[in-house]
Amino acid sequence: MATYVIRELAGHVGETVSVQGWMTHFRSSGKIHFLILRDGTGQVQLVIKPQGDVTRIGFDAFEELEQEGALRIVGQVREDRRAPSGVELDAVSIERLSPSPQYPIQPKEHGVDFLMEHRHLWVRSPRQAAILRIRARIIHAIRNFLDDHGFVVADPPILTPAAAEGTTTLFGIDYFGDPAFLSQSGQLYMEALAMALGRVYSFGPTFRAEKSKTRRHLTEFWMVEPEMAFCDFEENLVWQEQLLSYVVQDVLSYARAELQQIERDVSALERVTPPFPRITYDEAVERLKTVDLAVPWGEDLGAPHETALAAMFEKPVFLTHFPKAIKAFYMQPAADRPDVVLAADLLAPEGYGEIIGGSQRIHDLDLLLERLKENNMDPNDYAWYVDLRRYGTVPHSGFGMGLERVVAWICGLDHVRETIPFARTLNRVWP
Ligand code: 4AD
Ligand code: MG
Hints:
The structure is a single chain. An eight-stranded mixed beta sheet has the order 6-10-11-16-15-14-13-12. It is elongated. The mean pLDDT is about 95. By secondary structure, the protein is an alpha+beta fold. About 25% of the residues lie in helices and about 25% in strands. It has helices at about 110-115, 120, 125-150, 185-195, 235-255, 255-260, 265-270, 280-290, 305-310, 365-375, 385, 405-410; strands at about 15-30, 35-40, 45-50, 70-80, 85-100, 150-155, 160, 170-175, 180, 200-205, 220-230, 280, 315-325, 340-350, 355-360, 395-400. The protein contains twelve helices and 16 strands. It binds 4-amino-1,4-dioxobutan-2-aminium adenosine-5'-monophosphate and magnesium ion. Magnesium ion binds near residues 345 and 357.
C-alpha cells in the first residue's frame, strides 16, 4: 500500500493509503473518535468509528494515544471540502510508533519564556511551522531574484581578523593564540569579490554582541549582502526596491495559506511595489519636529523615530544622506555635501523600522585612508581592503538586508525571536 504525506492526500480520494505523523488532538463523541494527525506538510482529521475495522489498536487503547506521539495510520481518503487539507481519513488501522508522555506544550496559553525554553518542541506548533515555511519562501525568493539578475553567490568568511561595523558589537574568539572575530558583515569581502565577479551576493549568518534587549535585535542573524561594481548610490536604491518588492509579491503568491494561517492582514503588503518614497536625513529631522520627536541634527535616530517616520508613508521608505559622523567609515561622502554620506536605510511600514542598510563605498585610496584615521582605525588591520583601492578601483555600492527583520515584518510578528528556528539573544543560547 502506498504511503503519502498529508499534503498529497487530496490527490488520492477513494484510495486506502498509509500516512505517518504525530497526533496533535484527540476527542471523542463516545460513538466516534476524531484524531488530528500532522506530519509537517499539513494536518488531516481521522474519523474512527467503533463499527469500523480498526485493527492494530483496540478501542480500549485510545487513552494510550498521546499528544505528539508518532503514529502510522491506514485509512480511506474521503473528500471533505471544509477540511484545510480538503480530505478526511476513515481510519482502518492505527499503529503506535512511539510514545510521548506528558508533552510539555499543552493546547493552552503558555508564557513566551516557557515556549522559548522549549523551542525544540515549540517549532512543531502549526503557527511556528507556518512562520518557518514563510521564512523558507522568503529565502527562496531572495535567491531567485538575485540569481536571475546575474548576481553570483559568493561566501565571505565567518572567522575574520577585524571589525566591519564597529568594535562595540564584536564577538571575539581565540584563533590559535591570535585574536579573531565572528563576522559582523561580509561586506568588505564582498567588495573584493565584486571586483572579481561584477555583481555578487552573500547570504549567511552574522554575529553581533548586541547588549540591548529589543524586539528586533538578535546576536546571530542572517543577512543577504549584494555588492555591485560600477554601481552608484541611485542604482543601489533601485536594486533594493526591486528585490524587496519581488520578495513580498512572491510570498503573497506562494505562501498565502501560511499567511492566512498566522492571520496576517496582507493589505499593507499588497502595496509594496516600486518605487519607494525617499527622504533625506535633513527632511527626517524636520518631519520629526512635527510629531514631537525632535532630534538635534547630527544625532542618530532610534526605534521610535524610525517608527514615526515609517508611519508617514504607505510603502517602505528610504532614509538617505546621513551625517557622516554616525555612519561607517567606508561610506562615500556626497559630492556637494561632504558632511553627509551616500547611505540609505530602508524602513519597513507598520513600526518595523530598518530592514536594509546600504551605501555607495569610498573608492578613492586617499579618502579611505583619511576616513580610517578619523575613525581611529589602524590601516594595517585593513591593508587588504585598502589594496582594493590601489588596483583598478571603481565606484561600487551594496547593501545588507536582515532576513529576520524582513520575516518579522512580512509575518506581522511583534518580535524577531519567532522568525528564526533557534533565536540567539542577549540572554539566550538555549536550546
Ligand atoms: O545596517 P547594517 O549594520 O549594515 C551592514 O552591516 C552593512 N555592512 C551591510 C552592507 O552594506 N553590506 O545591517 C544590515 C541589516 C540591518 O538593516 C538589519 O536588517 C539587519 O542587518 N541587522 C540585524 N538584524 C537582527 N539583529 C541584529 N542585531 C541586526 N543588526 C543588523
Ligand atoms: Mg544599519
